[in-house]
Amino acid sequence: MTTVERVREEAAHIGAQPAAGQESGLTGDTVDLRVLKGVPGGAPEEVAYQVPMVTGMVVLDAVHYVQHNLDTDLACRWNCKAAKCGSCSAEVNGHPVLMCKTRIDELPAGPVVVHPLKTFPLIKDLVTDVSRNYEINREIPQFTPAPGDEGPWRIQQVDIDRLYEYRRCIECFLCQDVCHIMRSHHYADRFYGPRFFVRVASLEMHPKDVLNRVDQTRTDGGLGYCNITKCCTEVCPEHIHITDNAIIPLKERNADRHWDPVRFVGRFLRGERPAGDGTQQGH
Ligand code: SF4
Ligand code: SF4
Ligand code: FES
Q: Which of 81, 97, 174 is the best mutation target for the ligand 3 pocket, counting ligand atoms within 8 Å of the beta carbon and taking the most?
């Protein structure tokens, strides 16, 4: 009996069939997939599934296999299967990752444990409610050039390169999930989070934008809560240097604007009050 025949027989034994086109890639191994299933108000439980291993299989493949063959009720969100739509975020073996980018043969031996993002409210199984992120997005004023300045514009390459990094964001919200300000302190109501510090930076660093969003980011956005732990940068699948290239420049602008003594005296003489109470501090 060939390996493929043996695996097919094993798959049939557990009541499963390889997905169309995947037979030739069967490795003979079985993935011990454990998925946290549940709904709000219920008691989520880890359910174990045995999935035939296919060469190059990613976690999303295994979840799809379960949906097609073993448990049609299992809910997960995905769209592109190409690490570009940001939909399939989950916590695999405790790490926030894109399921479609996480190869099973690169994970440590043992069960593959898949949980939904912990920071966001659960909808069902692996699907969470990330709508708070879109509310934050709407709070941030959009790109605003000077009145009458409609282009075409000439922008230096160095500025284009800087903005390009921010524009790589796919809104997977893995950085929001891992940030302890949102995850442990539950400050989603007063903290924009790393993804939106990236968005603010992309607007603030744009050479043709004339608005100043730094005050708002400090007061409504809670920039001061961030203590530069860099966890967000570590999980970003687009390798955006969130802390070094977005958060720290925003903090520097904030410090220049509010804590520079010369500017302070200038504001005092002009009778200006600083925006917000300025009391937020890092944790
Ligand atoms: S660096 Fe700041 S935004 Fe990023 S995870 Fe740490 S506290 Fe959160
Ligand atoms: S900054 Fe990175 S981790 Fe955060 S939402 Fe964008 S792509 Fe995802
Ligand atoms: S399915 Fe689009 S990023 Fe994974």
A: 81
